[in-house]
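Hi R.,

Quick one: here's the DNA-binding transcriptional regulator BasR sequence you asked about.
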Amino acid sequence: MRWKSYTARIRALLRRHNNQGESELIVGNLTLNMGRRQVWMSGEELILTPKEYALLSRLMLKAGSPVHREILYNDIYNWDNEPSTNTLEVHIHNLRDKVGKARIRTVRGFGYMLVANEEN
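And here's the predicted structure, written out as tokens:
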């Protein structure tokens, strides 16, 4: 119950944030336009699926901080649609291919974190 109310609050905050016009998130060379739902990396537009966009926007909102996998999972799936267990990992893998593998770090036993620049 606790996670359900927490994610509902986050979704409400995101909706309010999205309604403020052409808000942009910038992390390193990544720019995400929340009004247009577009993402650019070094000035070139990235084509993302809706689930990849949802994951990247959450990671960019919390850049530099780990995001729990359950929060990410709830961003891309509703409670009625229960996918197989590794779908989050597959979407993260595909997103890493587009933004750079080292940009999205696995925080073992917790979730994932976006860093500003690729570092080995």
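The chain has one domain: 2-114.

Cheers,
M.
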